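Technical annex B. To support the medicinal chemistry partners, we prepared a structural model of the target in complex with zinc ion, based solely on the information shown next.
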Amino acid sequence: MHVILPDSSELELPEGATGLDAAAAIGPKLAEQAVLVRSNGAVQDLRLPLEEGQEIQILTTRDREDPDALHVLRHSTAHLLAEAVRKLYPGVKIAIGPPIENGFYYDFQFPESIAEDALERIEEEIRRELAEGRSWQREQISREEALERFAAEGEPYKVELVDTAEGEISLYTQGEFTDLCRGPHLQNSKPIKAVKLTGLAGAYWRGDESNTQLTRIYGTAFYSEEDLKAHLERLEEARKRDHRRLGVQLDLVHLSDHAPGMPFWHPKGMVVWNALEDLRRRENASRGYVEVKTPLLYDVETWKTSGHWEKFRDDMFLVPYGEERTLGMKPMNCPGHMLLFGSDLRSYRDLPLRYAESSTLHRNERAGTLHGLLRVQHVTQDDGHIFCSPDQIEEEIFGCLDYAKYVYDIFDMEARFELSTRPENKLGTDEEWDFTEGALRAALDRRDLEYELNEGDGAFYGPKIDLHMTDVLGRSWQMGTIQLDSQMPARFELTYMGPDNVEHTPYVVHRALFGSLERFIGILIEHYGGAFPVWLAPIQVRIVPVGEDHREASRALADKLSAYRVEVDDSDETVGKRIRNAELEKIPYVVVYGDRESENSLAVRKRGGERSSLSLDELLRELVAKV
Ligand SMILES: [Zn+2]
Ligand SMILES: [Zn+2]
C-alpha cells in the first residue's frame, strides 16, 4: 500500500501498516520522536492502521507548539494524573479526563474531599511515574467485556460511559492503570518534560447540576521546561491584568450579588464608558446611521414572531403583565427595529435605512457561567440594523467591515475575520445563498481583508462574518458580528415599494462592533493592564502641589487644562505618596508643582517613568495630539 507524505511523495508500506510503521520506514529517529499522525486535519493514534492513499503528516516532539501535538501530550498526562490519584486515594472513582485549551483536567469522586495542598503530593507522584517511565498500550474490546471490567473495578462512571459510548470501545493502559479512551496517546511518557497541576474546582458529572458533584483537577504539560515557564509567566501576567481585580483597584466598576451579573459602574468607569459611547455616536453619525430607542419589554407574541421564543426562551427574563399577558425583556434589539421599520410605508428611496441603538439587553445566563464583565446578564450592545435591497448588500457589508477595521485599529488590537457559510438546516435556495455569500466575499475582498472560512457555520437565515481581536497577551476574543438575514423581515411581513411598483421584502444586516460594551471594557482593561490611552483615561492629568503654598498655583494650572480631565491632589499625604498613588491609578500625566515650577517650566512625570520639564504650551500640545 501507499501513503502520501506532506511533500507529496509516496511511501510504500506493507498492507495494514500503522502510523508508527510509516515513521519507522522513514527513519528510526522519527519513529522514536513520533507522537501523532495527522491526516487532513484529523488526528490519528500512531498505533492505528493507515489506509491506501491516505495523506499523512507525522508530528514529533519537535512540534512542541503545535496544538494537536500538545493535545496528545496533555491527554496522556491526564491519564498519569488518574493513575497517581488512584494510587494515593484508594476508593476514588474516576470520571473523565480530556485535554483542553492550555492543559487538561480529570474529574474524580474522592472518598473524602481534598484541598488545594493535595496537588503538590499528586504532582510528586506524577513525577515519580515519569522518572520510572510509562508506555501506553492500546486494545480494542467488546462492550460486554468493557462493562464487566469497569464494574469489577468499581468504576460506575466508566460503566456509564461504556453504556453510552458510540462505535468501538478502546482502552489504553499505562503502568497499572487502564482507562476507557478513544485516544490518541503518546507511545510513552518520555516526551512529557514538564507537568504542573494548576487548580481544583467542583464539576457536575456530565455538566448536569442534578448529578453528583465531582472534584476537577486541572493541570498542564509541555514538551519542555522553558515552555512551562513561559506559560506560567503569561498566566501571572493575565492574573495581574484581571479586569475583576483592576476594575475595583482603579475604582471603575464592581459586581455584587444584589444584582448578579449586572455591573455597578463607578464615576471613573463611566468616563471610559462614555468615551466609547461618544466614539460610537460620532462614527454612526458620519456613517449614515440614525439613532433610535425601542422598548425593553415586549409581549411574548412578538418574540414568537421573531423566532426568539423558540430558540431563546430559557435565556429570557419574563415579567407577568395583567391577568393574561407575559412580557419578555429583550435579549436583542432586532424585533424592536423590525417593528419600527414596519410602522410606516417604505419605499426603495428610503433604503438603506441604518438604525443604531445602544440599549440594555437582558440575558438570563445559567448559574455558574457568569464571569466578571466578560459574561454578564445585563448587556449593552452597540447594535445596528441595516434595512436594504439585494443590490445594496455588498456595499453595506463593505461599510460595516470598514467601520469595524476603523474601530479595532484605534485600540491597537489585531482584527481577524471569519466568514461562515450555509449550514445544513438553511432556509432558502442554494441560488439565494450563492448570491448572499458572494456579496459578503466580495465585500471582504474589496476591503482587502483576509478571512478564515467556516463552511456550514452560518445561521440558518443567512451567512455571517464574525470579528475577532487578538489582545496584547495574544488571546483571541470574539467581538462583533455582521449577519445577513432575509428571514426576520419576512416573519414581520416587512416590505418596501420597489422602483417596479411591487412590494419587496428587505434584507437586514444585524451588526455589532464592540459587541457588548461591558465585555469590551473588560477586555480593554486587561489589554491595557488598566493603563488606558490618554483619550480613554478617567483622569488624564493630576497635579500634585508640593506644599500648601503651591495649592493656588496648582488650581490655576488646572483651570488652564480644563479641556482635559484634570485633578489637583492637595491631600495631606507626602509628595512621594501622592505621586505613588497617581502611579497606582495609572494616570498618564502627573505634574508636581513646587517652588521651582512655573507655567514656563512644569515638572511632568509620564506614566511609565519618563520625566521631563515642559512648558504649559508644550504639555497642551502633547495632550491635543493624544486625545
Ligand atoms: Zn483518555
Ligand atoms: Zn439583530
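Notes passed to the chemistry partners:
The chain is about 35% helix and 25% strand.
The pocket of zinc ion (ligand 1) is lined by residues 75, 79, 97, 179, 181 (CB under 6 Å).
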